[in-house]
Amino acid sequence: MDVGRFLIVAGVVLAIIGFAWPFLERIGLGRLPGDIVLGREGFRLYIPVTTCLLVSAVLTLGFWLFRK
């Protein structure tokens, strides 16, 4: 795959994720137990550890099934 096609596909995927994000937040994705939120006045650090693990597992399973 050439670089141009890869960038177009990556852009489309990011746009789809951006449009789907409000719906994903409603089901709790992004606020799972294990996600770390550190906050102070004027500062907030969010580290979505559990969310990243869950998304990674789902994508890995999807790619594995797609390959078969």
Descriptive tags:
single chain; 68 residues; two-stranded antiparallel ribbon; 2 helices; 63% helix; 15% strand; extended
Mean pLDDT: 87
The helix content, as a percent range, equals 55-70%
| Total of helices | 2
Cα end-to-end separation: 21 Å
Order of helices and strands: HEEH
Q: Overall 3D geometry?
A: extended
- CA-atom Rg in angstroms: 16 Å
* Extended strand count: 2
Question: How many discrete domains?
Answer: 2
Largest beta sheet, briefly?
A: 2 strands, antiparallel
Structural class of the secondary elements?
alpha+beta
- How is the largest sheet built, in terms of strand order? 1-2
β-strand percent reads 5-15%
Low-confidence stretches: none
Q: How does this model look, in words?
A:
This protein is an alpha+beta fold. It has 2 domains: 1-29; 31-68. The protein has helices at residues 3-26, 49-67, and strands at 36-40, 43-47. A two-stranded antiparallel sheet has the order 1-2. It is extended and about 45 Å long. The relative contact order is 0.09.
Furnish the topology, listing elements before pairings:
Elements: H1 3-26, E1 36-40, E2 43-47, H2 49-67
Antiparallel strand pairs: 1-2
Could you give a short description of this structure?
The chain has 68 residues and is α+β, with helices and mostly antiparallel strands. 63% of the residues lie in helices and 15% in strands.
